[in-house]
Amino acid sequence: MKPAVIALEDGTIFKGTSFGAEGEVLGEVVFNTGMTGYQEVLTDPSYCGQIVTMTYPLIGNYGVNPDDIESIKPQVKGFIVREVCKTPSNWRSVETLNDYLTRHNIIGVEGIDTRALTRILREKGTMKGIISTDENFSFKDKIEEIMKYEIKDPVKEVTTKEVKVFNGTGYNVALVDLGIKQNIIRSLQKRGCKVYLFPAHAAAEEILAVKPDGVMFSNGPGDPKDCVDTIDTIRKLLGKVPIFGICLGHQIMALASGADTERLKYGHRGCNHPVKDIEKDLTYITSQNHGYTIVESSMEPEKMVVSHRNMNDGTIEGVRYLGVPAFTVQFHPEASPGPADTGYLFDEFIEMIKKHKGVN
Predict the structure, then answer these.
(1) CATH 3.50.30.20 region(s) of the chain?
(2) Is 135 assigned a catalytic role?
(3) Are the C-beta atoms of 167 and 188 separated by less than 8 Å?
(4) Which pTM does this prediction carry?
(5) Is 247 a catalytic residue?
(6) Which of 290, 8, 293 is nearest to 130 (CA)?
(7) Which one is catalytic: 110, 247, 250, 273?
(8) CATH for 155-357?
(9) pLDDT digit string, tens, across residues 321-335
């Protein structure tokens, strides 16, 4: 382990100690408010291009196991914690967080005031930054490189490269992979679905060729407006087949329906965000990871209506579409914050498929 620095684009510098890999990495610095779930955070493709700060002070206390990952490898650019646990205790643990990040060449930093860093990001918004273990690091020499950093085509980087099939005996569901978390697939299979996993660039004709009973658009990283091909695909599918969108899929569906999206100041990232289901008049604790939201004033009331709302800042967390079988949510119903608060949305998707097919 070596001394390490974290430098933000505004010139703020934190000094700590590295764990995991050594070297230098650029990224968009964000924070996650979850007390647990660091494995899911590390492997969530929605974090592609980002350096993640955990607000909970001790991370790594239950180690790392092969069952709780959401993709085959860590997707974060870097990982920042107050203290990393070097001696985890859990019956499922197979390695330490330090060993896991070292194996995947991800730089971690511990020993900094993560509360102070989080306050800066909340007050100034998400910023670009750099982690470095170079003992001769100079912010002056790196500022231009930091400012030029962009997350380019993250969906293309994380999407599946070919169609994959996950067997089931129930309805056929076409799942468009924009950066999918594996538990979405497991949640569908749990309900008997046969899942066809398509790349993000799949055309509507390709998707319809497998005769899906329903189509899902997954979570994923980046600006939804960059997903031009997927927006076009949704337009061609709307009204032909039931659609369920999650996170990035939620945002892209809104764009395909004529609404607009905008960047949030610092996003929603964590497993403790309260969201109200307006129709049920119930509030659920949800897992979230996104930096964009739908602009409510841009929604056409004859096409779409708000179904869920964030109880912290009032932003849109769900939309139901009028005249077509489709609904979307901004949060992650496949995650387990409570532990299964919003899993009912997968059941509603199945019911929507049944209704569309005329099944009682």
Answers:
(1) 3-150
(2) no
(3) no
(4) 0.95
(5) yes
(6) 8
(7) 247
(8) 3.40.50.880
(9) 999 999 999 999 998
